[in-house]
């Protein structure tokens, strides 16, 4: 991929590769790569997952679309070793390896406290003056071994390279070291370069300190002293000081040279000192210093004032007068037009001045392409590049190629990325580290992970320094294909190199480590990150702690939580929930209780269930009463006492089957002056009923009769449902009758639980009477009640007999007649002659269907006709109902009863795939 196909074919032929031993094989390989690139070009919005880099943000997912999968499949057919070898050869032609070596030395030099102080002072944005006479002994020695030939051009190249990497400290070190070397003297150009670096880094106070100490340096007197100061203050954004110094020079009979004049003029334009610009420009003209640089700066002066028409007129006048005009001046106007969205006019000027034969048009082409790319006009940039390349032989430099490739990679236009990298390689354009990084990212995105990994592992051979973008891509792609250990290795290496991935990428790896159960590595990763002041996202901590808690390592989760507390990082509400539930499962309710209070102090409100779980755990420990009331005291001191807090504790004590504790809290609430509400009464009543202390529940209910003027439906319903759960059917029925006598309409719950209990007790006559009562009070049959009746009908015909007998005795024909037919059909007393659709419709006339209803219907149909049962299963799925264990079990049992063993086993396999298992009864049949 991305290699010269001709060279690749030749390489394969020379090595006698078995896959490419003939010209036909070579053609197939070329065709394959072209097809793969075309397929990759269709990757678009399905890509997801973010990572951020030096110039733009990329969305990334190695398997984000079918096109990406196709690209990856086809690309893998090309031998990876051939691709790796070809790229290694290209990468080794890079011409900035020496510069990388210089900056590696400068970055790694440690010269005791002085150097450390320099670093700290620089990192404080120049708030503390910097010493410049620091003897960098280790760097000095290492740089001397390189036998560098120091010239103005070489020093400028080094400083420019460091500036592109924003490595200000190393640039200062090199500048200081170079100035001390015998045979080399800093020039105005090198001083101007270091001034620009400091200015670009916005280290203004540091730069001003540099200038104030400038005269103390040994090399200060080897250049024009005043010129350098004027340039320094001009570049530092202090043009008024520069002008004052210039005035003093003129008073002393001194003057600036051409270089310094132009630096001052450019600074005045940059700082919008427009009036002073004309004065200095006139001085330049009077001294005969006017040249193409002057013209470019004056064009910038017009453009900064948005006087684009005057700028264009000025440029045309220069050409008309025969004055020197270069592509740099044209590029200033083209750039200004693009910034005003006047791309059409800018493009016309590019072509017009190219036709006029203006020199150095390459700078215009470069700016034009850059502006097109930044505006997202990638097609225009590509078309312009290809036209100029074919007509004029124009070849952009590596930087411009990189800019275009990065944007294309962001847009997932992998085919064009492939073509441009091939152009660079075939054009023998020496790649820089950005080119190499982008190439690795491309391989990741194209699915050629083995190639990317091999190049990454071989990075020392050609001096590749991966950036954060590469690390993000590699980690994402390894997580995507399950190579978690490899992703972990890459992330650790990136952090060792000082690169910190985006939180999203970190979270992706963390999620993968947790999912794979690699918790020790996850723990190392979090500690490693925190030691380097990298704070993972809340999601990462939450995922890690939750996983530790769910794998019975709640103590480790608590240690991570404690570390977060130490650095004043507030854990999320979900994290607290995981920890509290984990300690509850470990029967360490005292720790869970402390965490419950702590989470409220951190601003998180717990839910009622969390209180209940903690209280239940405390009640299973030693000294439960003490533990319970300690938590209550802590809670009351943590938050203002309220009815809700007391209700939470009554609720928890009731679930712990400690109604005595619930009653004490209930009485404490009354003593504190907070009147219990209906919910308080309900919770207290439930606490007695859950413990099956029926007499206490009845006594409390009677007390409520005395205290309350009206006993509402909620209290009656709570009592009746609780009595049903305690199997006290007779008492429950009595209270239902009392409820009705007082004019309170029973809730659906009352009827549902009573009918269920009566059917379980075989008291079908009373159950049928309750169904009739439902009709009288105007209530409908709920799904729960209807399902209970159908289920009982499947088990015994007695319900249907009671139904018929009571209806005949009363000679009743009502809306419940259809329900009676269904009960008869399910009990086998009435022959089913309806098809599936009609049977469903019949049930829907009586009550709403749910999954349980369908299961009952399938079980009933499977007794006579498995085809009808399977058809109902399909119809159920089409309607959006999710089959459960009992659905599949009914079908398996039906097939077995009909002797269709092979089909039954096939359905058992389906069950297993869905995560379900046959019931014990069905297992016996199997």
Describe what you observe in this structure.
- There is one protein chain.
- The protein has 926 residues and is an all-alpha fold.
- Among the domains are: 224-290, no CATH class; 865-926, no CATH class.
- Helices cover 70% and strands 1% of the residues.
- The chain contains 53 helices and two strands.
- It has a two-stranded antiparallel ribbon.
- Helix 31 (538-550) packs antiparallel against helix 32 and helix 32 (554-566) packs antiparallel against helix 33.
- Keywords: Repeat.
- One of its GO terms (biological process) is RNA processing.
- It comes from Pyrus ussuriensis x Pyrus communis.
> How many strand elements?
2
Give the overall form: elongated
Q: β content, as a range?
A: under 5%
- Number of helical stretches of at least 4 residues: 53
Q: Give the quaternary arrangement of the chains.
A: single chain
Our measurement of the CA-to-CA distance between the termini, rounded to an integer number of angstroms, reads 56 Å
Q: How confident overall, as mean pLDDT?
A: 81
Question: What spatial order of strands do you see in the largest sheet?
Answer: 1-2
Rg, Cα atoms, Å:
41 Å
Uncertain spans: 1-74, 111-136, 218-223
Largest β sheet strand count, sense and barrel closure: 2 strands, antiparallel
Q: Please estimate the helix content.
A: over 70%
SS-based structural class? mainly alpha
Organism: Pyrus ussuriensis x Pyrus communis
GO biological process, one term: RNA processing
Pfam families: PPR, PPR_1, PPR_2
GO molecular function: mRNA binding
